[in-house]
Amino acid sequence: MNTATCNPMIELYFSELESKMAGLPKPARQEFLQELRAHVLDRLQQTAEPTETQCRAVLVALGAPEEIARHYLIETALSRARRSNSPLLLLRSTLRWALTGMQGFAVFMAALVGYMTALGFYVLAILKPIFPHNVGLYADGPYAGSFGFNFAYMPHPHGRELLGPYFTPVTMFLGLFLMQGTTLLIRFFITRFGKLKQKI
User: Fold this and answer.
1) 24-58: b or e for each residue (b if 16 or more CB lie within 10 Å)?
2) Phi, psi of 74 (to 5 degrees)
3) How many CA atoms lie within 13 A of 108 on its CB side?
4) Residue where one domain finishes, among candidates 29, 62, 95
């Protein structure tokens, strides 16, 4: 196969793609580019004398360099997140995923709600010793007709406090449970649904 006609176009494409992936470690970047280049050459091998039009069609079908780079960056982020216990890394990775469609957006929102709720329990646990009479789980009336967490400092909350000195350990446990549960759930979603569709 003679690729002399296509070589300048291929080199320009991969030069632009490499510049878009400059933030990635060089070994991983080079490996990906080599695999992609082999794929392009394999496509061109189907024609004995590829023309400039055929070469351009192969590169257009592959996708714009910025699109390929963004796709690979998201795949790399999700791959790291599958093995991570860091809420910040999981949130950052799912935020990138959210930009690709509704599936990623739904997982990001689940992560955001789970982690923010866990953080809210931790904040309650910290505030209870500082404002012992204003923060707690209260029930209005003698028959506990309604329940709710009270965040208000003024005025003094009405009703009967249900947990008393157990409020702090209970909210700490709930915060930890939600934090770990959200992490495991998001890692499961990434493993199960986080494989983005390949164009090549």
Assistant:
1) beeeebeebbeebeeebeebbeeeeebeeeebeeb
2) -65, -45
3) 17
4) 62
Q: CA-to-CA distance for 81 and 90, rounded, in angstroms?
A: 6
The pTM for the full model equals: 0.68
Instruction: Please list the pLDDT of the chain residue by residue as tens digits (200 residues).
Output: 445 556 777 888 888 888 877 777 778 778 888 888 888 778 777 766 667 777 878 788 877 888 788 778 777 778 888 888 889 989 988 888 887 778 889 999 999 999 999 999 999 899 888 888 778 787 765 544 455 555 545 555 666 777 888 889 999 999 999 999 999 999 998 888 766 544 44
Regarding whether 191 and 129 lie in a shared domain, the answer is yes
